[in-house]
Amino acid sequence: MAALWGVSFDATPLSGVVVEFVKTARHFHERGYEVHLDLGYDIKADKGRFFRPYTDEPRLLPPWVRLARVPGLADLAGYDADLVTEVLQEVVEKGDLRLLPEVERLSDAVCELLLRLWDDLGVTRVLVENGTLPENIVLTRALQKAIPAHGRRHGLGRFALWRDHDLMWQSEPGSGKYGRPPYPNVPPLLADPHVRYLALHERARGLTRQWAPHVRHIDVLPNAFPHRPAEVTAANADFRAHYGIPARARLIARTTRVIPQKRVDRDIHLVAALVPDVDAWLFVAGDTTEDPAEYGRLTALAEELGVAGRVVFGGWLAPDPEATGAPAGGGWSVRDLLAHADLVSFLTSYDYESYGNPIGEAIAAGVPYVTSGYELYPTVYGDKGFRAPVLHDDLPTPAFVNEVAQLVNDDTLRTATAEHNHRLGARHFGRSSAAALLDRLVLTPMGPRTRMSVVLPVYNEAANLPAVLASLHEQRDPAGGRLDPELYEVVLVDNNSTDDTVELAKSFAAAHPDLALHVVHEPEQGVSCARRTGMVFAAERSTGRPEEAPAAGQRFYLVSADADCRVDPHWLAELLAAMDGSGADIGVCDYYYRAEHFAGRPRLWDAISRTLRCRSVAFALFGGFPDGKGFAVEREAHDRAGGIEIFYQLENGRFVNHLSDDWDFGIKVSALGGSRVYAPASRVEINPRRVDHALEEVIEGKAYGSGGTIVMRDIRPARGIGARGETVEPGGPDGLDGPGGLGEPGVRDLTEEEARRAWDFSVKDFLPKNLLLPLLLDPALLTAPPVREFFGADLADALGQRIAEIVDEMRIVDFTPIHAYKTPSFRLYFEFADELFAVLRRTVGEDIGYPPPLPECLAEVPRERFREFVHYYCEDRESGEAHDYFGNGGVF
User: Which of 84, 144, 517, 711 would give a disulfide with 190, using CB separation of 3.0 to 4.6 Å?
Assistant: First the structure.
């Protein structure tokens, strides 16, 4: 049986950290894992529990959680609470490194104890809670040594989850107990193929990446809650009576550790201020023995304020209804308390809490809450629209007390607030979101023979999706039989579809279980964001396979597809063969239209076919650049480049995704030394709606945007007119948009003048990208015999010399990657346009013609200053003139 072992660095029998461990471990338990937990008594020195045996602790946890601490620590010479305290104070706080040799010696010994324990338990998963917080760097270093060793020994892949609820910058940063940024004496995060880091929210992930830029595998796993209202039942009906709380009193619940940082004194002041206008009572669920001095201070305060009879310190309450509770709690659970509470309070210290689980529990249980404005409250709850009184002062002010009184006295307001928060909470913190992440990254393993993940971004593609998925399912091998479905999987990235896209995908997966299909959601709108999410998802899962998996030692490929295009039956097999055979980092497909879709439109088809002929020549020579419609990238090359990068531009005063993420990604991979291969037999049919819906803008030279902005347009028709003038519905018999793939009102051929302008626009977009960018990325290509033959020796030498001059000139001038290649390609076009078009006429055909007219501003420039003003023109990022001249992200 598989086993999960977890450790909490919190060193308390109950805390938010322990509760979250149980929630996460439940997903594993439900899939047959044995679950073991070390509460960390032998880790933190300030809790007074070092080497203390467990007694009633199991009663606080579900019966399927077994407590299993590291055996033999008490017998390890030199390892005790005094040593841990000294290391924290001298090494971490003060930077005195004389104890580090002892830390390393002890961590080696603890590592051996951990490995022995994990082998005895048959551990296949490890969950570390708060191990980065340097309360005990001996244990942290021991885990960092044991995890790689255990993973290698048993071929476990990325089997360890390391989650930090608190970090140096989140847990009492003002105290300086963990040193000062950048925390040089804290063990750095371990970048190891056996570890996956989990952050609680995006801010924590961002800060962690700043602190540890060498670590790439950091996912956001928010604390999750079962969103069901807490109810008074026969089992808990006597809860109030048991504690002497009147049935009609307004009960404020506080579930917390009874320590100074939690500021329970604020709750006592709040109750005193509410009385006599409100019959308010306070129930504090927490261990009163953890800090006896604080408990004594709080009870004295309640006496002083005259509310001692209204404040109940109830001791531990079980966090889970499955647990039996502890003697001090009388067997009750937190859910029982919430069923009777009118309000949940969380008036904690400003810089102590990183998440605020009691708020999440209240939201999930359908109970209103009040909170202090602690540091991360806006990040976790406040900025998402939750409603609650927020205390921004040291003690409750009259205004705050009045707001709380109104909430607890007005049943209608209290109900409306609770329902509003509950709906929001289910969306942001529902258990399904956490389960989905764990399933995708951990619990649903990638097939042991899988070599490719096909990433398919979708947004309202219900009309096209069945045919696209069918074409992926029926991929053929070189012999004509069905391609082995174990070689590939499909990752469908839903980008906020409002139609039946997701339901159709799930239905297809259920009907075709032989094809692994995963549905991933990307909330930020834009195909670039969706493609990035799908590729990161697939890349990270692929690294988690055991080392003995048949495909684990082979190259793994991330493959991009578009939901409105069609892939040929041999698409994947040919792409796989080209990538394996060449060892290239990027594989580029052949993209084509079916001529019959443009029957009766000869001028338009001529412009399209000329573009495709030029592209085939350039791709064969230079390998081409990826297009989202179909390309492959080797996983390690993807990771080295940092994945798909999202560029943003302003459109009408708001930021929008830059459309050319696929080309820009190809530039990044190539700039890092990555090679490209053209796979002409791996073919993708382009949906002609892409032409029809942008045709007028192509003619005018404004396709996809202008003024320097490239934006995605929704090119799906709702209803249109077919080639014969009839009304058609989207989704014609071939799966395209109406008969013949048309579907745009007024489909027509071009006039001669329009055809000329469309060709000019297309060739200006094509030439800098496909003939000049490859040379800028790798000038050595100009010495290769096929390239010199293509350009001719004189032009090849002239291009090489000019590229060297431009590269030297821009070395310090321009730090923006896209401009480091895009604007020089524009400059080379202007400087060598006549020669380049002569090459195309010679190799592609005389119908390629001559360069389109220059921009008027350049036509007037004296010849001797032409290069100078070309530079200014191409670098004019404010107006976007050069961008508009050369095309906005691709045409045909």
Answer: 144
Alpha-carbon distance values, 213 to 190, 191, 216, 217, 291 (Å): 11, 10, 7, 10, 38
Residue type, 577: A
Enter the tokens of residue 65.
């959680």
pTM value is 0.64
Q: How far apart are CA 590 and CA 612, in angstroms?
A: 9
Burial level of 758, CB count in 10 A (0-12/13-18/19+)?
buried
The CA distance from 524 to 823, in Å, is 29
The one-letter amino acid at 875: E
**Closest by CA position to 497, among listed 455, 458, 457:** 458
In 3-state terms, what secondary structure has residue 649? strand
pLDDT digits (tens, 9 = 90+) for 147-180: 999 998 887 878 899 998 888 877 767 777 888 8
d(C-alpha 405, C-alpha 397), whole Å: 12
Second-level CATH architecture of 3-220: 3-Layer(aba) Sandwich (3.40)
8 Å CB contact between 378 and 388: no
Mean pLDDT of 668-696: 86
With 0-12 CB in 10 A as exposed, 13-18 as middle and 19+ as buried, what is 59?
Answer: middle
Neighbours of 792 (CB within 10 A): 14
- Using CA atoms, how far apart are residues 405 and 592, in angstroms rounded to an integer? 69
Sign of the torsion angle spanned by Cα atoms 139, 145, 149, 155: positive
One fold for 3-220 and 239-432: yes
Distance separating alpha carbons of residues 208 and 705, to the nearest angstrom: 37
Provide the pLDDT for residue 817. 53
For 101, the 3-state DSSP assignment is: helix
Tokens of 71: 């055996």
Q: How many CB atoms lie within 10 A of CB 631?
A: 27
State pLDDT tens for residues 587-613. 999 999 999 989 889 999 999 999 999
Q: Is the pLDDT of residue 90 over 60?
A: yes
Task: State both tokens at 647.
Answer: 């560029």
Q: What is the pLDDT of residues 870-884, one digit of tens each?
A: 888 887 655 677 777
Structural contact between residues 264 and 284, judged by C-beta atoms closer than 8 angstroms: yes
Return d(Cα 327, Cα 316) in angstroms, integer: 8
Q: What's the CATH architecture for 443-644+662-687?
A: Alpha-Beta Complex (3.90)
Query: Which tokens hold the place of 566?
Result: 């069609």
Classified by CATH at the fold level, domain 239-432 comes out as Rossmann fold (3.40.50)
Q: What are phi and psi of 842, to 5 degrees?
A: -70, -40
Output the furthest CA–CA distance in the chain (Å, rounded).
98
Cis omega (within 30 of 0) for bond into 389: no
Collapsing DSSP to helix, strand or coil, 813 comes out as coil
CA 197 to chain centre: 12
Dihedral of CA 325/326/328/334: which sign? negative
* Sequence spans of domains, the chain: 3-220, 239-432, 443-644+662-687, 769-886
